[in-house]
Write a structure and sequence with these properties.
44% of the residues lie in helices and 18% in strands. The chain is α/β, with parallel strands linked by helices. The protein has a single domain, classed as TIM Barrel, CATH 3.20.20.150. The chain has an 8-stranded parallel β-barrel, surrounded by 5 helices. The protein has a two-stranded antiparallel ribbon with strand order 8-9. Helix 2 links the parallel strand 2 (23-27) and strand 3. It starts with a strand and ends with a helix.
Length: 251
């Protein structure tokens, strides 16, 4: 297992918080000129200097599938361009939100599967593993079970966001997904949450039963990104320690 930290789209935050982590997950944000607006050389230099591997998070406001074929083609080409850039920088994984124009429209699900398959293939072409993130608690996010079924259908890896799953369906939702789709998980987003709406807080500060990970993902060999919204390095490292203990029974 490899422990990393999310840093948003800030190279400065990367420099401040990535000490003692194995990797960073860098966000591409939502600017129209991504990735041209990113200082590639500085990003690579800082990662090399700190000895951390690079993963990326693709823009999260862009849905994967719509009812309009021309828009869907443009979405795939957009993601292909971003994945090509990520591959050139040596990124290993790219997180993609599992979103559609209208999650209640079941006719979009086969379209989503085709879109996802094309984006995953574009990732392979660029040398980047696309990992599909659950965001079913959000307006355009696919429900947990639907996302798991579609990922399995097209042989896509999953980025399982524990906090998002809890916000969607509580600890029962976390348990069901881990039990049914644990074999699809390649990447984890680890943070805590509370039902009242608090999220991306340090593990142990919320209501998520992280022992579920010990039950269903013990010995996990994938990557983990600590996604706690703070620059407090001690808090980030404490959450990393707790997650490592849960997954490996090893301090």
């Amino acid at each position: 297992m490899e422990l990393g930290v999310t840093v948003g789209d800030s190279i400065a935050r990367l420099e401040k918080t990535a000490h003692n982590f194995d990797s960073v997950e860098f966000g591409l944000a939502e600017a129209a000129d991504v990735p041209e607006c990113i200082d590639d050389e500085r990003l690579q230099h800082v990662c090399n200097e700190m000895g951390v591997a690079l993963d990326v998070h693709l823009p999260f406001k862009q849905v994967v599938a719509t009812p309009v074929p021309e828009i869907n083609e443009a979405i795939v080409e957009h993601q292909r361009r971003l994945l090509s850039w990520a591959g050139e920088l040596g990124a290993r994984k790219a997180v993609l939100h599992g979103t559609v124009r209208n999650p209640s429209d079941t006719s979009l699900r086969p379209i989503f599967a085709t879109q996802l398959s094309d984006i995953v293939e574009a990732g392979y072409d660029a040398g980047v593993e696309v990992v599909l993130e659950n965001v079913g608690h959000q307006k355009r996010g696919l429900p947990l079970t639907v996302l798991g079924d579609l990922a399995r259908e097209v042989d896509a890896s999953v980025c399982f966001d524990v906090g998002h799953a809890y916000m969607e369906d509580g600890n029962d939702g976390v348990k069901r997904f881990l039990k049914r789709y644990g074999d699809t998980i390649s990447h984890l987003h680890a943070h805590d949450a509370r039902a009242r709406g608090d999220t991306h807080i340090p593990v142990g500060a919320g209501e998520i039963d992280y022992e579920l990970l010990s039950t269903y993902l013990s010995g996990f060999e994938g990557t983990v990104a600590i996604e706690v919204f703070t620059d407090d390095v001690e808090l980030l490292q404490d959450t990393a320690r707790r997650v490592k203990l849960t997954l490996t029974d090893d301090l």
